[in-house]
Known about the structure:
single chain; mainly alpha; Cytochrome Bc1 Complex, Chain D, domain 2; binds heme C; about 0% strand
Amino acid sequence: MKNLLCSLAMLVIFRCEASLAAPSASDPNLGRNLAAICANCHSPNPRDNSAIEPLTGMSKEKIVKKMHAFRNDEKAATLMNQLAKGFSAEQIDLIAGYLSSQGKVTRRVK
Length: 110
Ligand code: HEC
């Protein structure tokens, strides 16, 4: 009985860990949460005045196409090739879907 309870407890713990390690696509906020990584450099805040262009408001097709070009080393880049390889096609689709649904940002003139 003790062994059975212990096994059940382990099963619950491992299932929790598994769901933390691999967030499910059924999470409605997954695209937004993954896109938060992009905002560190592609800031949607006009006040940041970053040299790296914002992605919000860019078409989903354009983001997906460029991300796959980076992943496949078809588009030259300093760091996006490495970064894009860290995402699955499904994750890129979710990220692009979220970013394209956001309002376009107009940066102030430098
Ligand atoms: C560490 C900074 C950094 C992060 C984080 C980052 N990018 Fe980039 N991104 C760049 C830079 C720099 C470029 C210009 C290409 C290069 O040199 O790598 C770029 C270029 C791009 C371009 C091409 C823009 C164009 O008009 O050609 C796209 C699309 C893009 N990034 C998407 C993303 C997405 C999606 C994410 C999040 C998953 C992301 N980036 C995260 C720095 C970053």
